[in-house]
Amino acid sequence: MAKIVGVVTTDEKSIGGGSPIFYTKNREDLQKVAHLLEKVMDCAAHEVSEDLFIIVDRH
């Protein structure tokens, strides 16, 4: 089973929970941060909506 290890968003009001949350200023930064975290953490980044990515542990 996959585990959400992080969330990257531009919308501070719609996200909460137990995983680390990374806030970005715009969509361009959102994509950059999500893909950087994907590489650094050896995980997968999945776009949930225009302003939300989840980082999922594949192992």
Sequence-ordered SSE layout with sheet pairings:
Elements: E1 3-9, E2 21-23, H1 27-40, E3 44-49, E4 52-57
Parallel strand pairs: 1-2
Antiparallel strand pairs: 1-4, 3-4
Can you describe what's shown?
The protein has one domain. It contains one helix and four strands; from the N terminus they run ββαββ. Strands 2-1-4-3 form a four-stranded mixed sheet, with helices on one face. It starts with a strand and ends with a strand. The model has no long low-confidence stretch (mean pLDDT 93).
Features:
59 residues; single chain; alpha+beta; four-stranded mixed β-sheet; globular
| Total beta-strand segments | 4
Number of domains: 1
Radius of gyration: 10 Å
Which stretches of 5+ consecutive residues score pLDDT under 50? none
Average predicted local confidence, pLDDT: 93
Compact description:
By secondary structure, the protein is α+β, with helices and mostly antiparallel strands. The chain has one domain.
